[in-house]
Design brief:
six-stranded antiparallel β-barrel, alpha+beta, endopeptidase fold (from Nostoc punctiforme), 8 strands
């Protein structure tokens, strides 16, 4: 390094140090997450394995159903397009056919997957309004896509009531 570059280098280091001291975020790409890792971090539902297996794995441990509830885990079916399924956390139900979810590893950002997305719109397109088929907002389209995804259902964070045991 030449002596002419030394003052510039010192200025850059001082600017970076001051920025970090005052809470300015550093330019670091976050570690990518898959959908299961994200849901495990933010949901009280404690399941493991591929996303599509969460529906069966929840049996007996958590309540399951076909109607979304805030905080429930939406479980997508295994398909050719989703060979591991997909899971997301329901944030809010806007109307009978529209939800907002939080999930990871869906849209591409700058050509990469693994990004966490919040308040993503999901639309129920099932013929019986039973949340068995949905379309999901996709970042690069700026809208819900044309692809219809099958759902297994919703896993509710509270454990189901245990059967009463009779004393003899």
């Amino acid at each position: 390094m030449t002596t002419k570059a030394a003052p510039i280098r010192r200025l850059l280091i001082a600017t970076l140090t001051a920025g970090l001291s005052f809470g300015v975020p550093a330019l670091v790409r976050a570690e990518p997450l898959n959908c299961v890792q994200f849901v495990q971090r933010v949901s009280p539902v404690s399941l493991h394995g591929d996303a599509y297996k969460w529906w069966d794995n929840a049996d007996g441990q958590y309540g399951r159903g076909t109607q979304p509830q805030p905080g429930s885990v939406m479980v997508f079916a295994k398909t050719r397009r989703l060979p591991h399924g997909h899971v997301a956390v329901v944030q809010q139900q806007l109307d009978d056919r529209t939800l907002l979810i939080d999930h990871a590893n869906w849209s591409r950002f700058s050509g990469h997957r693994g990004t966490v997305e919040h308040a993503v719109r999901v639309v129920d397109v099932s013929s019986n309004n039973d949340w068995s088929a949905v379309r999901v907002w996709y970042h690069s389209l700026g809208n819900v896509g044309d692809t219809v995804y099958k759902l297994r259902g919703f896993v509710y964070p509270k454990t189901p009531p245990r059967p009463r045991q009779h004393r003899h």
